[in-house]
Design brief:
The chain is α/β, with parallel strands linked by helices. 57% of the residues lie in helices and 8% in strands. A 5-stranded mixed sheet has the order 1-4-5-6-7. A two-stranded antiparallel sheet has the order 2-3.
Length: 378
């Protein structure tokens, strides 16, 4: 249920939205959504999905808005998605979209059997094929809903991703409450609702008096574990255009394997055996497109910083930046260790990043990545 104050604020923005839809910008934005609906509905219709080929599925994947977060879509498709096996992907997709089992079970089975397609991609596909049933769940609604002062869906889905079909159904029911409140303003299905959210996100939030867009758009992120720090290092590296690698592939954060988040599954052969042996033990590494390492990160959550410094120092002769990532209370220990004789001459090669600074970097990178994509293209 929405309070009277929430309904009043929602109607205020919906009234403005109804007028905006009549403008050239509004009509173009709406057309973009409808074109995406037409494209995905046609390519993945019951008849066409049976004739789906790997090349056609690659085209669909690259057309998804969710794939715009990745710099090299073909590499991602070839190395993260197709390894599932194309026939398996097609069969699981058919079951997800047109199967007879309960939706939550179909969604969970797809996620268990197919890696590389997360909630943003799957909800986009479901959303455009069945716009009356399934909402698109990505950063836009997760940003706009708190801005509107709404408390549906629960806060845990705003701050974190979801992984289960039952959780997506919970999100769907919550967004249905919002959508039903806006039918008098021309919002009839979840595509209309997403256009509404996108208009607020892209056109209105930065113009709201007294609103700091960099704060209101991104929720706070709490880094409280080794896996959390590695997760955000992988995400930031990806957004900044680096190829990311982690030695901790099997570790999980928010029910996601770090190996599934990293772009690279194997470390590039950028050096001889000695350097590769040391590099393979570094927690997180970022590489450029030439497969040369540019940044090396050691996360020290419960272990002593001296161990991380020791591993990083083995790569000091390479042209890379070396980082210790830890809680702020370990900074003084880090500084004192750099005064030791064996580190004193190379102390300028090292940097310390606190968990708070990493969270701020992630929060800043998200809107930067969006603006970069909007202005410079994919």
């Amino acid at each position: 249920m929405l309070s009277s104050e929430q309904v009043e604020k929602l109607h205020k923005y919906a009234s403005e939205f109804k007028d905006w839809l009549k403008t050239p910008e509004g009509m173009l934005d709406y057309r973009d959504h409808k074109d995406q609906e037409t494209y995905i509905k046609d390519r993945l219709s019951p008849d066409n999905i049976e004739k789906l080929t790997e090349d056609k599925f690659r085209e669909i994947f690259k057309k998804l808005w969710a794939s715009n977060y990745f710099r090299n879509k073909d590499w991602l498709f070839d190395n993260r998605i197709i390894p599932n096996g194309f026939d398996k992907i097609k069969n699981e997709l058919i079951k997800l979209l047109y199967g007879n089992e309960a939706f939550e079970n179909r969604y969970d089975e797809f996620r268990r059997n197919i890696k590389g397609l997360g909630p943003s991609s799957l909800t986009e596909i479901l959303h455009f094929i069945f716009p009356e049933k399934y909402p698109l769940w990505n950063r836009t609604p997760k940003t706009v809903i708190p801005f509107l002062g709404l408390d549906v869906p629960p806060d845990k889905f705003i701050k974190h991703s979801f992984s289960k079909g039952a959780e997506y159904s919970q999100i769907t029911r919550a967004l249905m409450v919002i959508k039903n409140e806006l039918t008098d303003f021309g919002i009839k299905d979840f595509i209309d609702l997403d256009v509404f959210f996108w208009h607020i996100f892209d056109d209105l939030m930065s113009k709201e008096p007294g609103i700091d867009i960099t704060i209101i758009k991104i929720p706070e992120f709490n880094i409280d574990s080794h896996e959390a720090a590695e997760f955000y290092l992988l995400e930031v590296g990806k957004m900044l255009g680096y190829w990311t690698y982690t030695v901790d592939k099997s570790k999980t954060y928010r029910e996601k394997r770090l190996g599934d988040i990293a772009i690279l599954q194997e470390i590039p052969q950028f050096a001889g055996d000695r350097d590769l042996t040391w590099a393979k033990n570094i927690d997180i590494m970022w590489f450029n497109e030439e497969e040369n390492p540019t940044h090396c990160f050691e996360v020290e959550h419960t272990t002593d910083i001296i161990h991380g410094l020791g591993r990083l120092s083995q790569l000091q002769h390479l042209y890379v930046k070396l980082f210790i990532v830890a809680s702020e209370d370990k900074r003084s220990k880090y500084e004192s260790l750099l005064n030791r004789v064996n580190y004193r001459k190379i102390r300028d090669r090292f940097r310390f990043i606190s968990y708070k600074e990493l969270a701020e970097l992630y929060e800043t990178a998200l809107p930067f990545h969006k603006l970069k994509t909007k202005i410079l293209g994919k």
